[in-house]
Specification:
504 residues; alpha/beta; seven-stranded parallel beta sheet; six-stranded parallel beta sheet; 12% strand; globular
């Protein structure tokens, strides 16, 4: 049976004697990325790791990074399960969120349970001792129970986002949702103040809650999927979050009142730098990007003055209309600053030509020499480059944490889910952002960029962002830092305790 060697030096143990954690992210880039970071940290701490992707995303990884991306090590292996979606003729694109949520929730449990059972019967592989599942794959709790091991759930979004979802029933009980008609989406109804909502900022409006609550359809897939998944958190052995207590204390306090033990271990990128040797050790080149990253971005930034570049990236799922794309383009062109713009091929909502091909030729001519357009990049490295002065973002949680960790202020254009909640907190609670607004207009984009890059509010935002960066660093890198201590407690209280029981 798996055991921890005398003295607790798990990293020195033979592979078949290590505690074995199986990591299963929700199959979307924003979930795969932080789960991979956590998996690498656990491997560094002596765990045998099985990292589970869906078959579709496994193929995307091989397509974007080559076979070496999934080669692993003798004690860090990759496995796959089907996602349940019908076959697609699109080989390299983000899958439809509603379909992904429905099919993972309704079809994945037996496949994951069988994988765990098969791992337990594989020669040379230690028995599974714990599962680290994405909180949006809560069926992991049942699969882990079937093989007699605990399951911790990794909530990869913000604590305020989590409490936003937990307030869905409150909002419906208050009669604020579902909406009575589509007109309420545009007539100012969404600006209705919601005070007090348990665990949330006193400045919340209905529009600031995760977007799925702003619907006329009580039976909507995403609304009910998120309600189900967050309420399943109660059954986990622990909840892990990529945040730090100082940033989200009220939301975390509310979570601790209703959930199993909470372990805040963020900013996860700082924790990884603290605990992973030599930039990641033997797994340094194992990355989780489902798109091929363009490293020329960094070379282009090297030639720019400090804090002179606007970095634009709307994440892996956001889509927009061609009109919105053009308005953003001319706002960037007219602001006068250099900019690096990540333009995914599937950025346009209705498909067709690649987004970059839709940009007006006169825009490209007007910005020649001061803009770089590319389809994907190593975002952490870009944000930390001294040339970057502001981040135009969708406010997904990875992007928000990476922006805070780099001390970079943000211009916020949320797309869906809890991005709206992150935006409200970034702008009102944390003082690091400004909203672009739902109705994208080039003159507003230009004005926001100018203010963020050179105005008084921009200086205040920069100062606040640097303060949060320092707090995050203390939490993860200094002795006694809360996130560092929480990670040690997670190992001791949940993950290695399970291994010791298995060995007994």
């Amino acid at each position: 049976m798996s055991k921890i060697p005398a003295g607790g030096d798990m990293a020195a143990a033979p592979a078949d004697e290590k505690p074995h954690v199986v990591c299963l992210p929700f199959p979307s880039q924003g979930h795969v990325t932080p789960m991979m970071k956590l998996a690498k940290i656990l491997h560094c701490k002596g765990f045998y790791v099985t990292f589970v992707n869906t078959e579709y995303n496994h193929r995307r990884l091989v397509h974007s990074r080559g076979p070496a991306a999934v080669a692993g090590l003798s004690d860090f292996r990759f496995a796959t399960i089907p996602d349940g979606l019908p076959p697609s003729d699109v080989a390299d694109a983000t899958q439809h969120p509603e379909s992904l949520c429905y099919y993972t929730m309704t079809t994945c449990l037996p496949h994951f349970k069988k994988l765990l059972q098969d791992l337990n019967g594989t020669a040379g592989v230690p028995p599974v001792t714990c599962v680290m599942g994405d909180n949006l794959m809560s069926f992991c709790v049942d699969a882990a129970a079937a093989v007699g091991v605990p399951c911790a759930l990794f909530w990869t979004a913000s604590a305020c986002g989590y409490m936003g979802y937990r307030n869905f029933r409150f909002l419906m009980d208050e009669g604020l949702s579902p909406l009575k008609d589509e007109e309420q989406l545009t007539n100012g109804y969404l600006d209705t103040p919601v005070t007090p909502a348990p665990g949330m900022s006193k400045h919340m409006r209905l529009r600031d809650f995760p977007s799925f609550i702003c619907t006329t359809d009580r039976d909507g897939i995403l609304l009910n999927f998120l309600m189900h998944e967050v309420e399943q958190s109660d059954r986990a052995a622990a909840i892990v979050l990529n945040t730090f207590d100082e940033l989200e204390q009220p939301a975390l306090d509310a979570m601790r009142d209703i959930l199993p033990p909470i372990y805040t271990i963020g900013p996860l990128n700082f924790l990884a730098e603290q605990l992973l040797p030599d930039g990641g050790g033997p797994l340094a080149t194992t990355r989780s990007s489902l798109w091929k990253e363009d490293r020329s971005c960094l070379e282009w930034l090297h030639g720019r003055e400090p804090r002179s570049v606007v970095y634009v990236n709307y994440g892996s799922v956001t889509t927009m209309s061609s009109q919105e794309l053009v308005e953003f383009a001319w706002g960037l062109a007219n602001c006068g600053y250099d900019f690096l713009w990540i333009v995914r091929n599937d950025l346009l909502a209705k498909g067709g030509a690649a987004a970059s091909a839709t940009l007006p030729p006169d825009f490209l001519e007007a910005t020649k020499g001061r803009c770089l357009l590319t389809s994907w990049c190593e975002q952490e490295a870009v944000l930390r480059h001294e040339a970057v002065g502001v981040f135009l973002t969708h406010c997904g949680w990875n992007s928000t944490m990476e922006g805070l960790s780099a001390g970079v202020p943000m211009l916020c254009w949320p797309f869906f889910a809890e991005q709206q909640t992150n935006t409200r907190y970034a702008c009102v609670e944390w003082g690091v952002g400004m909203e672009v607004g739902d109705d994208v207009r080039r003159e507003v984009v230009e004005a926001r960029i100018r203010e963020a890059m050179g105005g008084e509010l921009g200086k205040e935002m920069k100062g606040k962002a640097m303060e949060w960066k320092e707090v995050g660093l203390r939490a993860t890198t200094q002795p006694g830092g809360r996130s560092l201590a929480n990670f040690d407690r997670l190992l001791k209280d949940v993950l290695t305790t399970a291994s010791e029981k298995s060995a007994a």
